[in-house]
C-alpha cells in the first residue's frame, strides 16, 4: 500500500550563499501493507511530522521515492496531489481541525461538498456516518458544544466520509484524557477491522503505539523497526 524508498529531507537556513543545511530525515525506508495499523513513534523534533507531510504530499523529499497504492507520487504537481489526497486519504488531527462556525453535520459534510456530491446524496451519507460514530443526537451542535472525545469523533467521521483507503493521523489522542483516549483507540481498531482501512499514526505515546500491527521508531531522522536500524 505504501512504499517509501530511501527518503531524505532537509532544508536550508541563513543568508543566500552562506546557508546551513539542516537534515531532518536521513535515508528513511518503510513499507506499510494494506489494512495495517502502522505507528511512527518519536519525540518532538525527531522528524515524524515531516515524514507524515511527505506521505501526504504537502512537502517534497529532497531525495528518494514514494509509492502509494502502486502509484509513484514522488514527482506529483500540487494539482495532482490535491486530487490524489481527495480520492485516497482521510486525516485526523490532534487539535481536531473542525470549523467552529459549522455544525457537526456540516463539518462532516464538507469533503463531500468539496468533491461536488449532490445535496441529497450528501445528506444520506452524513446521516449514516453520524449513526456510525454515535453522534446522531449531536448533528446540529457546534464544536464548542461538544466534548473532546465527541469532537475527535466528528474529525474521524469527516476523515471517513469519502471512504478513503488510508487514514493519516497526527497525535490523534494528544488532546484527550486517558479514558477518552482509550475510547478513540478502540474505535480506530474497530474501523480497521471492519473496513480494512490502512492507518498511519504518528505519536510519542506508547499507549497509542500499542494498537499498531507495525511500529517504527524515529530518532533524529533515522528510522528503526524493532531492533533493526533501517539507515545504511
From TrEMBL:
<dbReference type="InterPro" id="IPR017871">
    <property type="entry name" value="ABC_transporter-like_CS"/>
</dbReference>
<dbReference type="InterPro" id="IPR003593">
    <property type="entry name" value="AAA+_ATPase"/>
</dbReference>
<comment type="similarity">
    <text>Belongs to the ABC transporter superfamily.</text>
</comment>
<dbReference type="GO" id="GO:0098796">
    <property type="term" value="C:membrane protein complex"/>
</dbReference>
<dbReference type="InterPro" id="IPR017911">
    <property type="entry name" value="MacB-like_ATP-bd"/>
</dbReference>
<keyword id="KW-0547">Nucleotide-binding</keyword>
<dbReference type="GO" id="GO:0022857">
    <property type="term" value="F:transmembrane transporter activity"/>
</dbReference>
<protein>
    <submittedName>
        <fullName>Acetoin ABC transporter ATP-binding protein YtrE</fullName>
    </submittedName>
</protein>
<dbReference type="Pfam" id="PF00005">
    <property type="entry name" value="ABC_tran"/>
</dbReference>
<keyword id="KW-0067">ATP-binding</keyword>
<dbReference type="GO" id="GO:0005524">
    <property type="term" value="F:ATP binding"/>
</dbReference>
<feature type="domain" description="ABC transporter">
    <location>
        <begin position="2"/>
        <end position="232"/>
    </location>
</feature>
<dbReference type="GO" id="GO:0016887">
    <property type="term" value="F:ATP hydrolysis activity"/>
</dbReference>
<dbReference type="InterPro" id="IPR027417">
    <property type="entry name" value="P-loop_NTPase"/>
</dbReference>
<dbReference type="InterPro" id="IPR003439">
    <property type="entry name" value="ABC_transporter-like_ATP-bd"/>
</dbReference>
<keyword id="KW-0813">Transport</keyword>
<dbReference type="GO" id="GO:0005886">
    <property type="term" value="C:plasma membrane"/>
</dbReference>
<dbReference type="InterPro" id="IPR015854">
    <property type="entry name" value="ABC_transpr_LolD-like"/>
</dbReference>
Amino acid at each position: 500500500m505504501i512504499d517509501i524508498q530511501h527518503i531524505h529531507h532537509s532544508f536550508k537556513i541563513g543568508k543566500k550563499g552562506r546557508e546551513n543545511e539542516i537534515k531532518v530525515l536521513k535515508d528513511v525506508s518503510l513499507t506499510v501493507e494494506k489494512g495495517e495499523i502502522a505507528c511512527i513513534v518519536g519525540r518532538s523534533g525527531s522528524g515524524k511530522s515531516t515524514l507524515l507531510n511527505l506521505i501526504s504530499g504537502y512537502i517534497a523529499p529532497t531525495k528518494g521515492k514514494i509509492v502509494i497504492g502502486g502509484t509513484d507520487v514522488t514527482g506529483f504537481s500540487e494539482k495532482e496531489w490535491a486530487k490524489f489526497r481527495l480520492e485516497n486519504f482521510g486525516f485526523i488531527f490532534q487539535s481536531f481541525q473542525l470549523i467552529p462556525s459549522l455544525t457537526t453535520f456540516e463539518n462532516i459534510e464538507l469533503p463531500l461538498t468539496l468533491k461536488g456530491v449532490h445535496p441529497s446524496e450528501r445528506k444520506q451519507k452524513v446521516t449514516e456516518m453520524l449513526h456510525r460514530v454515535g453522534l446522531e443526537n449531536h448533528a446540529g451542535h457546534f464544536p464548542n458544544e461538544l466534548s473532546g472525545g465527541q469532537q475527535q469523533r466528528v474529525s474521524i467521521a469527516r476523515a471517513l466520509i469519502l471512504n478513503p483507503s488510508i487514514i493519516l493521523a497526527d497525535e490523534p489522542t494528544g488532546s484527550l484524557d486517558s479514558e477518552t483516549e482509550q475510547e478513540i483507540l478502540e474505535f480506530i481498531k474497530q474501523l480497521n477491522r471492519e473496513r480494512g482501512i490502512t492507518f498511519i499514526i504518528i505519536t510519542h505515546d506508547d499507549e497509542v503505539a500499542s494498537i499498531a500491527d507495525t511500529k517504527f521508531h524515529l530518532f533524529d531522522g533515522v528510522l528503526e523497526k524493532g531492533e533493526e536500524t533501517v539507515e545504511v
